[in-house]
Each structure stands twice: as C-alpha cells, then as structure tokens.
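Can't paste images in this forum, so I'm doing it all in text. The chain is below; anyone willing to post the predicted structure tokens underneath?
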Amino acid sequence: MTKATGTLLIADEIQCGLGRTGRPFHFQSFGWTPDLITVGKAIGSGIPIGAALVAEHVAKEIFAGDHGTTYGGNLLSTRAALLRARRARLQARAAASRQMGALFEQKLRALQTQHRSSPA
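Text version of the structure:
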C-alpha cells in the first residue's frame, strides 16, 4: 500500500509473462511489494486464465463476488496453471542446483590447487 495516500499498489503482470524479465514477476525488478498482482495466460501456459494474487490484508477485505475476471477458473485453465506452477518450482530448484554445483566445483578446484603435492 502506498503510505502517503493509502492507495493499493497493483502490479499488472498479465502481459509480462512469468520470468520474461529475468525474475518471476517484473515488479520485482523495482523492489516493489504490491498489494495485488494480476496474472493471466502465462500462468496457464497460453490457455486463457486470469487471476489476482492478493496480500493478506487485502484478502481479509474482499469476498466472493467482489472480484470478477473474463477468464476465471475452469477445470482446463486451472489444471494448466497448476502444472505451470509445478514446472516453475522444478525449474527454480534446477537453477539453484546448477549454481550450487558450480560453487562446489570452484571450491574443490581451489582446494586442489592449494594442496597440490610437489613433484618428487
């Protein structure tokens, strides 16, 4: 929430797609903490779906029927979104593993260089 006016900060991520800017959401590039994030086809891997991710303080103030969307959840789109979320989580784990593996290799090579035995 913007403190000066009490206005909700809304990050419209519908067109940005997930990960297109090097981060899961583009608003993260600015260090923002939005109160509401709109997401669309990217979470359904191209299958039309719309969703709003809301902060806890916003969730306490909205109720069924307060929010509408052209492409609300249906069986196909919500299943696609679930599979996309699982894939994103696996990709994040794989990226973290690659980074850790590279660091581990670097440290092992440094130890190898440090402890090389001199020729006899």
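The chain has a mean pLDDT of 84. The longest strand covers residues 36-39.
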